[in-house]
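Question (not urgent): is this output format expected?
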Amino acid sequence: MATVNGYCVKCKDHRDIKDAQAITMKNGRPATKGTCPVCGTGMYKIGKSAV
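Got this back:
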């Protein structure tokens, strides 16, 4: 399983997304949804997923 890197707005740093899952947003675009492993804030990365 590949790790997906995203930006945490609470920590203000790039981190690997924990429990990453591929989703499709309402407008049909693909995204990755998960949580920050340090602070637990929800993280999203818009674009084609590597999960």
